[in-house]
Amino acid sequence: MSSVSSATTASTSSITTADLAAALTAVRASVPLVHCITNYVTVNDCANALLACGGSPIMSDEPADVADITTICGGLVLNIGTLNARSIEGMHAAGARAAQLGHPIVLDPVGAGASTLRTQTACELVDTLPITVVRGNMSEVKALAGSAAATRGVDVNPDDAVTPDNLAASAAFARDLAAKLDCVVAITGAIDIVASASRAVAITNGVPMMGKITGAGCMLSCLVGAYVTANKHDAFTATVAAIAGEGLAGQIAQARMGELDGNGSFRTYLLDALYTMDAAALSQGARIEEL
Q1: How far is the CA of 220 from the CAs of 43, 44, 139, in angstroms?
Q2: pLDDT of residue 151
Q3: How far lies 17's CA from each of 95, 182, 281, in Å?
Q4: Which of 5, 107, 178, 186 is the most exposed place for a label (fewest CB within 10 A)?
Q5: Which residue ranges of the chain lie beneath pLDDT 70?
Q6: Domains of the chain
Q7: What pLDDT shows up at residue 157?
Q8: Are strands 200-203 and 192-195 parallel, antiparallel or unpaired?
Q9: How far is it, in rounded angstroms, from Cα 69 to Cα 21?
């Protein structure tokens, strides 16, 4: 349960384009140092995404090292995509130190519901650490809530996808879980939902091509880590800004693609778009709706 009050005490007034611009500007101005214990399949892309958005990454999962690393950082991202006994121990040690220091903690429960180890690890982290933001697809988030359909690896189960038809019910589920966990809950997919106990926002930025590269979700969790570290007073708005920003970067990347470009080019263009995005572009291009 969260000790970071910004998740539940931030203003409940509607998010404005100025709020999104301010969140990005804060990241660029403060260059937040973020400790990432993340998926080794995507660790390089995660580090580059943090650099592109204006943050600074440190990657370490060694249990003897993580407390010191977390101490010199401002935020922590925990990603369970490639679990092993050492990394699980490292996550708990880093999380405990971050809790002592009051640092924001972002949890990405990759593949929760696909195996007992993943589900138990995600639930133990939520139960023992002051998580600020949980960010995953609907199947993963449902696994945390104990109501998952059969999770298909790290991909969302089609039965769990957020659609216009189930958007209201999905938002209600997210708000209820945010209240239960005392944190911001971000459910990402074709339609993204960011929820606190009292409010929810839908985000419709992004393109299907983002599902054709490894690590778009892992990168997003690290971006959320940078944004909430730079905007500790309002984790909700920071999370919305990070998710809208990556989705918009995906749109910009796709618009650049030529006839011979494929997912490799798209990945590069995505990083380029994150790097060049400014506050004006985010505020103009973000597609958000209060629910």
Answers
A1: 12, 13, 17
A2: 43
A3: 33, 26, 10
A4: 5
A5: 1-13, 147-158
A6: 6-290 (3.40.1190.20)
A7: 57
A8: antiparallel
A9: 30
